[in-house]
């Protein structure tokens, strides 16, 4: 089961990068959030046998850290909070005061990569 979550997470990661390159900034942020969420849920399924019912990347990374007995790095926590915000605001045009721009998409991608690297480092 976890493998299916990983595959989908990898696909969403690729879409986040593709949308960023195409200048589709809100979509890049949404798929960055989804990629992180699916990776973390896959790791939690693999580790605990169950899937948490949340879209909060922050809660997921915190849960995984607790299950593994590892310290949650401050920059990873900050990125997880940032991506958690993207779940709603990147999908709804009126959920955010300003339009997404290239810098926003770059921050989403950067945070995705930071979380991805941290999860791989702590679970392999």
Description:
With 124 residues, this protein is mainly α. The chain has one domain (2-123): Up-down Bundle (Four Helix Bundle (Hemerythrin (Met), subunit A)). 76% of the residues lie in helices and 0% in strands. It contains five helices and no strands. The longest helix is centred in the first third of the chain and has 24 residues, at 25-48. The two termini are 18 Å apart. 40% of the residues are buried.
Q: Which characteristics define this entry?
A:
124 residues, mainly alpha, Four Helix Bundle (Hemerythrin (Met), subunit A), 0% strand
Briefly summarize what is shown.
This protein has 124 residues and is mainly alpha-helical.
Q: Please, what is the oligomeric state? A: single chain
| CATH homologous superfamily (4th level) name | Nucleotidyltransferases  domain 2
Ends apart, CA distance between termini = 18 Å
Sequence of secondary-structure elements:
HHHHH
Largest sheet: none
Itemize the secondary structure elements and their pairings:
Layout: H1 2-21, H2 25-48, H3 57-68, H4 74-89, H5 102-123
């Amino acid at each position: 089961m976890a493998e299916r979550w990983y595959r989908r997470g990898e696909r969403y990661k690729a879409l986040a990068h593709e949308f960023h390159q195409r200048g589709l900034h809100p979509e890049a942020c949404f798929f960055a959030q989804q990629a992180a969420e699916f990776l973390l849920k896959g790791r939690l399924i693999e580790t605990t046998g169950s899937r948490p019912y949340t879209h909060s990347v922050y809660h997921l990374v915190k849960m995984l850290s607790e299950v593994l007995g590892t310290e949650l790095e401050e920059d990873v926590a900050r990125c997880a909070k940032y991506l958690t915000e993207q779940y709603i605001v990147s999908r709804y045009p009126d959920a955010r005061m300003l339009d997404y721009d290239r810098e926003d998409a770059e921050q989403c991608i950067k945070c995705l990569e930071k979380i991805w690297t941290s999860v791989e480092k702590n679970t392999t």
